[in-house]
Specification:
343 residues, 15% strand, binds flavin mononucleotide, 45% helix, TIM Barrel
Length: 343
């Protein structure tokens, strides 16, 4: 029996990928996940916004130095009207480079620590920086790159099509400069989800990761204040991803990884049956530790043995929308008695 799968052209010994999260931000955990049998690991994202914040802090804290440098700059380029701006941009770039250096070092070390594919992850908000970061990460030895893009459609002045264009612009720019495969990890806030995801696959995404789970604010009714919601996924949160993996499998021209709410072998098997090429776990590791990896893999193997499947290819996508007799079942959204089996 073999659990080996292909994902974005990479050979994975099994479809279980440790998703990007705080736990994949250190080498000790990454080594443990590889030892426990994970097929691949996605490193903790580097956040452009964080780099920007650190850069601003650096600029504030070293304002005197900045003034000093600007004076020198002014002296050299005497009379130049934008001397201050240039000096500031120079220092901002220096700070950015400095912060990014740590992440690149982490990618290099992770690559050397484990022999499973290491997928780096970046979350940036501007076109220029995505490209810049991506190229440096490739040079650092990442086997693939996951672009973690989440445009929350909360701007009253931005139409759906404008929000969606951001994904295409970033993908196009990054793909132009990279040789390693690129996955897009996204949320589900798209006005025409099926249409847009198909277009993104045609625009060069090597895989779509469905879906990233946003951090959601909550309200504390006793303190009458905003609070953080539970960040870990619950038992039934896999269902949205399941519907869309099933709907897109066999239609999009890229691989699919299921994410959110995969807490056990049963859920993982469902996603594979729906058509996922691989699946990612994060909350399961926070809740149960690295032991969950062999438990999920063992559960998949036992089920395969019971069903007489000898490889993942034997059943992958078997219950995808394009394979079943009544595909409309994946399009039902109303709780009609006939389908929900309840009044
Ligand atoms: C504490 C925490 C930190 C996370 N950090 C990242 C991150 O840096 N980058 C990213 O793409 N996803 C991040 N995620 C999202 C997870 O990778 C995953 O998509 C999400 O938690 C849903 O999967 P799950 O149900 O298995 O947890 C994070 C999740 C958690 C719980």
């Amino acid at each position: 029996m073999s659990l080996t799968v292909k994902y974005m052209g990479l050979t994975l010994r099994n479809p279980l990928i440790v998703g990007s999260c705080g736990l994949t931000g250190n080498l000790k955990n990454i080594r443990e996940y590889a030892e426990m049998g994970a097929g691949a690991v996605v490193l903790k994202s580097v956040f452009e916004e964080q780099i920007r914040m650190e850069t601003e802090q650096f600029l504030k804290s070293d304002h005197e130095k900045l003034k000093e440098w600007t004076a020198t700059f002014d002296a050299i380029v005497s009379g130049a009207p934008h001397a201050w701006d240039e000096a500031e941009a120079y220092i901002a770039n220096f700070a950015k480079e400095h912060t990014l250096k740590d992440y690149l070092e982490f990618v290099r070390e992770a690559r050397q620590t484990v022999d499973i594919p290491v997928i780096a992850s970046i979350h940036c908000v501007s076109k220029y920086d995505w490209t810049y970061f991506a190229r440096r990460i490739q040079e650092a030895g990442a086997d693939a790159l996951e672009l973690n893009i989440y445009v929350l459609p909360s701007d009253f002045n931005s139409e759906g099509v404008q929000n969606e264009q951001v994904y295409f612009d970033i993908l196009k720019e990054v793909k132009k400069h990279l040789a390693i495969p690129v996955a897009l990890k996204i949320g589900s806030y798209f006005s025409g989800l099926a249409f847009t995801l198909k277009k993104l696959s045609e625009a060069g995404a090597d895989a779509l990761v469905l879906f990233n789970k946003p951090y959601n604010p909550d309200i504390d009714i006793h303190k009458l204040a905003l609070t953080a919601s539970d960040i870990y996924s619950g038992e039934n949160q896999y269902q949205k991803s399941l519907r869309w993996i099933a709907s897109l499998s066999g239609v999009v021209s890229c691989d699919l990884a299921a994410s959110t709410g995969i807490l056990n072998a049963e859920t993982a098997i469902k996603q594979l049956l729906a058509g996922a090429d691989a699946f990612q776990i994060a909350s399961a590791l926070y809740k149960h530790g690295a032991e969950i990896i062999p438990q999920i893999l063992g559960g998949i193997e036992s089920w395969m043995a019971e069903k007489n499947f000898s490889s993942v290819a034997d059943f992958k996508g078997m219950l995808g929308k394009s394979k079943i007799e009544h595909p409309v079942a994946y399009d039902r959204v109303q709780f009609m008695k006939h389908y929900a089996k309840i009044e």
